[in-house]
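Chapter summary example.
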Amino acid sequence: MINFVNKIFLILTFCILSESQANDPNPENAAGYEYHKPRFTGNIDDFSDEQVIVLFRGINYLPDLFTQNERQNFIADTQIGQEIYASASYELAGEDYGAPPSNDLDEAGGQVAEEVNSLDNNDPCFVNKSYYPSCRYAMQELYSNNYKKFHNELNNPSENYAEIFNNFSFTCNPLVSFSDRAKHPLKYAYGLKNYGEHQPLLPHYDLNGRPRYPVIGRLYGVILDEATVEEVLPFNAYKAHKYGLIKLYDHYSNNIVKEREISIPGYVPGDAVTFEMDLEVPSFEGDYPEYYKKKYGLTKTRYNNYKKFFTCPLKTAQQRQDKTRELLSKIIEPGYIDNAGTSDNTLVNKLNSIVEKTLDHIGAKECKLTLDYTLE
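The structure predicted for these 376 residues follows.
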């Protein structure tokens, strides 16, 4: 039981935060707001009757990288039909992260891709006494397993990795990571993954049940046809591990394998960026909104249970954070099937249905990515 002093401290903390830090605007409070199921809004007709792969990427609005104004400007903008660049591309172009597409960024993205792809020269190599089909495989293993060490090698290559990192003209991340499943990109976007030294942006519910940050990330979907796969050369880390060519962590506490990572060096062409979705969180202020069943998979009973929890001043900060993470996890994937139909409206199930219906509508066939940069 929390004591009286701690209770007062918690209430004062919320009051101070409320006065000194304004809430982000909540899209649900806009006049005339209506919930609409997400959909592919890019020019998907270009992929009619093609063989394609659909990949997802999630970003969280990390406070270290986004000020409130930058976050709001990013949310207000769209990247449908715009290139997605790796951090190294911004570095070489001399642009801030998230700057709009430009010729300089295109050239930088191409240079980054060329430098990374030069490692895939079919010559085997040994790194830390381990054998790899090429240096590209060794680089990907390090990147997927230990991003902090990967970043350190970019900035100060060790003797073991000099053969790889001394070839680069950049010191920032040259890869744009995706997955052919929506679950883990959603976890990244909702701040449920390990971001190393960065703290993710979470909703931070106040004692009225309002989220200080109603939009905390964004999910992207890209469609790649055979021609684009040949152009951007996406590396299938999951399949490389499956064939024993690299070793990804698969311990239950840090299972990198299940993320099914596919990495693209430099940039992704704008024509491929056909889907985006701002990842919002529910508010528990007021009565239950009926559309929450479709939007978040929340029944009225579950809504009221969360509302009771978040508006209780006796809960500790750690308890509130744990409950928030539980809520976000269940918005992504239910882990169960219920008779109320809410599990169908959780994001993984919803997105699987949207992809299937979208591709069926244009007659496209979803394929898998091989290790030799083709579709099967």
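To summarize the output: The chain has one domain: 40-366.
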